[in-house]
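Appendix B. Chain record.
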Amino acid sequence: MTEAEQKPVEEFTKVESIFVRGRNCLLLRADFSPMFVDYYLHLMQHGLRNEETEDTVLKKLLAYFTLHLVSRPWQEYHAWTFNVCTPRLANYFISGSSLTEDVVGRAFREGVRETDKNMLFAQNLLPNKEPQTSVITLPQGPVEEWVQDFYRQSEQRQSRAFDLGEDKFALITAQPDADHDWLQELTADDVRAISETEQTKLLETRKFKFQCGCTVEKILPVVRAMKHDFADLLSEQGFLEISCPRCGATYKVTPEQVQSQEES
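Structure tokens predicted for this chain:
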């Protein structure tokens, strides 16, 4: 057994927030192996499967979304919904919060609205405030260009997104008086070596898991509210299959469970 095989997978993905002195840029980086393990365990547990194209895109979006969360204040909840035609027609949904230390996402191709462009619907929710929503048209390039264009249009600042290989990802964002030329010319190799070539300061570390938190008990109130519409189905089939919109997990709800919810 090699040293890599003996090394245990961490329970959380730990994201480092690092200030690059002299360049006035914020580097966010992490090894997403723990999050991707949780993601695959979730798929196995609920009998779900994503094809390779959607699987690759979703994992990248989970990584960059998590890095973006760490660039934002703790109390915010964010959600990204993509309707894209490239690399092929699909929808992606990702959401999460630093307060709950979880990120969840799903990909799906059934019932997707036909489109000839890539669109992102980005939401930012703060306690006791109206949600802030951005609707952005994205380039038909790789996921990294989607993220960079989101920053250019919604955040109104420059950024660079990097897949560093072996489940490691990085996001570098411009701060006031940033060295934009340096940021634009960065390569993946430069980012890997940034701690040796630049003056850096670790600002904070946050940790995340792939986790939805949905349960049949949490879904029951929704079913209860709609039960009159589904009374015939409940009577005919003896159960309803309800899918969680956040993670795609499917639960069987029986009339007995609905009745129990009413009585509790």
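Further analysis of this model is presented in Appendix C.
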